[in-house]
Amino acid sequence: MAYLVNGNDIFKAARENHYAVGAYNTNNLEWTRALLRGAKETRTPLLIQVSTGAAKYMGGYKTVKDLVLNEMDNMDIDVPVILNLDHGDYESAKECIALGYSSVMFDGHNLPTDENLAKTKEIVKLAHERGISVEAEIGKIGENQGADGGELASVEDAKTFVAAGVDKLACGIGNIHGVYPEGWKGLNFDRLKEIAEAVPGEPLVLHGGSGIPQDQIEKAIKLGIAKINIHTELCQAAMEAINEHKDEPFLAVERAVRQAVKERAMYKIKLFGDDGRADE
What we know:
The structure is a single chain. By secondary structure, the chain is of the alpha/beta class. It has 11 helices and 10 strands. An 8-stranded parallel β-barrel has the order 1-2-3-4-5-7-9-10, surrounded by 11 helices. A two-stranded parallel sheet has the order 6-8. Helix 5 links the parallel strand 3 and strand 4 (about 105). Helix 5 (about 90-100) packs parallel to helix 6 and helix 10 packs antiparallel against helix 11 (about 250-270). The chain is globular.
């Protein structure tokens, strides 16, 4: 029978050994099967995650969890799988903890720092009582912003949130969600280095991983990034497949999308250096 893992040991090993584990969003059955298949074929630990919007589209957080577990059984998945809530608010995080997700990201960046910290501590307490991993965010990750990118996270905030017990820390270092604009200035490695040195051993998370040049990805991993979120590139791969096969029968289009998403995920897995890690 399929089961989920919280991934804490997986991400600590990734930071210690200078590779990263991809975190891939799902939006439906086809994407879920594609990601599971790609992880199995590359022998890679998989973090599959769902946003609040995608969960609503798919029928709710319970439906998502049931879908992942059912497909793990159906596909005889024998690599570690982590199911994560991506960018959840306080109520969503509590719901997913109660449902048995193995990881939750509480995103309180839009709250005053004191309130964000207080609610993060509450989520950490609830989650850790059930063996569930917690990710927090400091510094707003940009949303389709200009060339300057998103905010820079505070080093002091990093130390404070890690002390509160979070298992993974997403930090703004100029990264953004969506497509990076022409002339984007790139990741701020000075700030990443400062944060990594301030919280040694803590797995750091890079949101908006789609489209970042490979040399910057490699440098970020060397400095402490252990989890990289990928969604936009999967969307692009899916749309390319739809456009290429639009005149074919519907099920053929769905199969093409599933293959495209799988191949893009496998490509990122190899770039991040986590292929084969499930057997270590």
